[in-house]
């Protein structure tokens, strides 16, 4: 659940997932020379340059990451096997023992494209179990198989979720870049909390084929990386290795309309903020305590945006924002539990082999093995609510219509009436606004609180506006360069 406090967490209700850890985009068989190239904190652009200059070899890179995983994973619990299907020896379990030993029919669509592009799939990341969709009581980053994921900056701090492991892994230099999935905040929130860049694409822009689902209507796969230098995010952005039509996911055909000719790397412009119209919604997103680290940071950041040539349209409002941020009131919770049951049942039925073949069987498994799954401690209330649904009936249809209306009268209207290129908000608190409309967002490191816990800044836009968001986010990142390596404080 992508949240910064418990009340916000409960109101969001859902949030997705995580996953495949990607070593690099292009492999190399060169032998490294004696030049001391530093892999730690290196971007993919830097890694590929080191390949070309014969300063680094693929084997050396793999050995480094394996060593770091062995050294740090016992503390961080970030790497295991989970959500995105791989047709190899790795399990795809959503962090649950219920799917341990299940066999997928084929690589997920994004994995096929990554392998074709030369990526090495090192492993899969941990997550909030079942994409934080089993229980409202379970903590962010916890799964029965993976244990409790830890924030590498302050180990006792919330790593957020549900794509906790991908963000932790990248932040701690266990891997160069990772993929995560998001239903509502699950890329943006852990990226904010672990001081990495998270890109949540327009729904449909990346294929969901072969991915354990929550809601095909809201789910999307995006990148988590150290820097927006989209060579870091290019696994799914600039070379199209993840973004393209996948005939196993019909939604990608419609969304392919948004893919720009030549890919996304062309939008990495140093002065990408110049002339951009950025909206600021103070209430409720900027309601910080006066004098707090967040207040000071974002006052400075807004000034930086102006200095870089952006036009700030301040004190805007999103209609019915309180309703949108409350998953029960908006109808998001009603829609998601029904969609989850349908989507999960379809997913498990297509598996070549599986211990469970329906949500009902997952619930029964959890009850039977309650000690392993910590059912008595955290329960499975969301599962039970989903199982009680019976398809998309009148109640669910009404909820879906309300979500569409809230998006149209709220975020979409605020963007179009004010002719905005993006909406700027702190942390990832705007995630539900973007989620219910299938809108994209990019989260960039923005600072650290007095305890050393990271927080990000989010740039959200209308469907298909990734090129503008990349220009804006990259311009901000290059003007501030805030990210620093993790300190592993207790």
UniProtKB/TrEMBL annotation:
Residues 81-433 form the Amidase domain. InterPro entries: Amidase_dom (IPR023631), AS_sf (IPR036928). Keywords: Signal. It comes from the Eukaryota. This is Amidase domain-containing protein. Residues 1-31 form the signal peptide.
């Amino acid at each position: 659940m992508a949240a910064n406090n418990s009340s916000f967490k409960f109101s969001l209700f859902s949030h997705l997932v995580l996953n495949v850890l990607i070593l690099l985009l292009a492999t190399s068989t060169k032998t490294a020379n004696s030049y001391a190239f530093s892999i730690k904190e290196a971007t993919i652009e830097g890694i590929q340059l080191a390949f070309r200059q014969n300063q680094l070899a693929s084997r050396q890179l793999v050995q480094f990451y394996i060593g770091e995983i062995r050294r740090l994973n016992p503390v961080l619990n970030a790497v295991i096997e989970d959500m995105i299907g791989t047709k190899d020896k790795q399990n795809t379990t959503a962090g649950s023992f219920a799917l341990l030993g299940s066999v997928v029919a084929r690589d997920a669509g994004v994995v096929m494209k990554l392998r074709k592009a030369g990526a090495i799939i090192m492993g899969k990341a941990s997550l909030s179990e079942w994409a934080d969709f089993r229980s409202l009581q379970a903590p962010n980053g916890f799964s029965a198989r993976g244990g409790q994921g830890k924030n590498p900056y302050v180990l006792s701090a919330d790593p957020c979720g549900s794509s906790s492991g991908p963000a932790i892994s990248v932040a701690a230099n266990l891997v160069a870049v990772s993929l995560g999935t998001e239903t509502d905040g699950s890329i943006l929130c852990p990226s904010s909390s672990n001081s990495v860049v998270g890109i949540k694409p327009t729904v449909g822009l990346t294929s969901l084929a072969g991915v354990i689902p929550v809601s095909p209507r809201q789910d999307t796969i995006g990148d988590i990386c150290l820097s927006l230098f989209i060579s870091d995010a290019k696994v799914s952005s600039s070379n199209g290795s993840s973004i393209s039509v996948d005939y196993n996911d019909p939604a990608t055909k419609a969304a392919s309309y948004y893919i720009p000719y030549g890919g996304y790397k062309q939008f990495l412009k140093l002065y990408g903020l110049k002339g951009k119209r950025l909206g600021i919604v103070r209430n409720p997103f900027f309601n910080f305590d006066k004098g707090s680290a967040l207040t000071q940071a974002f006052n400075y950041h807004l000034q930086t945006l102006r200095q870089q040539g952006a036009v700030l349209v301040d004190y805007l409002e999103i209609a019915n924002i309180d309703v949108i941020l409350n998953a029960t009131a908006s109808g998001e919770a009603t829609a998601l539990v029904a969609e989850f049951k349908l989507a999960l049942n379809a997913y498990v039925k297509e598996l070549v082999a599986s211990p469970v073949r329906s949500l009902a069987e997952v619930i029964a498994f959890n009850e039977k093995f309650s000690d392993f799954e910590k059912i008595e401690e955290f329960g499975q209330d969301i599962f039970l609510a989903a199982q009680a649904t019976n398809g998309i009936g009148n109640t669910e249809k009404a909820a879906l219509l309300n979500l569409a209306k809230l998006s149209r009268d709220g975020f979409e209207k605020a963007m179009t009436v004010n002719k905005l290129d993006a909406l700027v908000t702190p942390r990832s608190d705007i995630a539900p606004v973007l989620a219910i409309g299938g809108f994209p967002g990019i989260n960039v490191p923005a600072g650290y609180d007095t305890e050393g816990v990271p927080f990000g800044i989010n740039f959200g836009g209308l469907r298909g506006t990734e090129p503008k968001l990349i220009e804006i986010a990259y311009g901000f990142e290059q003007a501030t360069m805030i990210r620093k390596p993790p300190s592993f404080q207790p």
